[in-house]
Amino acid sequence: MSYLSYEPKDPMSSVLSVDFSSLDLGELPPVLVEQARLVWADRVRTEYQSIQIVGRFLIEALAAGEPLSVTRQVAETIDEEISHAELCGRMCAALGGRVPEPREVAAPLDDLHEVPVEERVMASAISLFLIAETFSVGYLRDLEERASHPVTKVVLQAIVGDEAEHEAFGPELLERKLRGLPEGKRAAWRAFAGRLVRAHLERAEKVLSRVPESERVLSRWPESERATLGLLGEVRLALLCQQTYRERLSPTLVRLGLEG
């Protein structure tokens, strides 16, 4: 979705009618349920911290004098991230887990006052709206496509639909801000993006280094039982990381002049 053609919507509308009580825990392996409780509780944490980061980005975008269309899209993103945190909390509760309170998951934000506001906007656009969102969409789409339980599927559909829009927002914003940028500054942002991407790929390679080459294919790790509750094993996650970079992120980075 282009932030120039934004239309308000209710991010919770697709899940308000979900009957979370239909998630019958008696039909699922106890070990898997316990793992799912921890994973969905941790997703509350990551979604809450996303609210914090996007909230700061909104202030930075306003301070940098970004167009109001950008402000509107970022404000909508904050609302969606709040809904995602609530959704993850409802899923955690439905699984019998303890939902963490905001004060337990809030993280201190880095002090960036000495960094020029324009650089903060660029850094956030690259790190959050481009790199982090692209990897996140890759993982969530894989889970949503394979989730067999209707509750899990609807929750994942609601989240991945919003995240896909966030993923589209980053390249649009960056394409405008990189236009006409001197090569020296573009090279600096290229190095910045490269460091962030390498961190993801190196974590994946560390996991896959313990896996024989012949086993490094997604078909070897179907994880259908895990997908029932929206879970990914570390090997499948690592393979998805590499696939998402190869098929989605790298082409975008190249198009933006942030890779190669």
TrEMBL record:
Gene3D superfamilies for this protein: 1.20.1260.10
Superkingdom of origin: Bacteria
InterPro entries per the UniProt record, alphabetical: AurF/CmlI (IPR025859), Ferritin-like (IPR012347), Ferritin-like_SF (IPR009078)
Residue ranges the record marks as coiled coil: none
Protein name: Ferritin-like domain-containing protein
Lineage of the species this protein comes from: Bacteria, Pseudomonadati, Myxococcota, Polyangia, Polyangiales
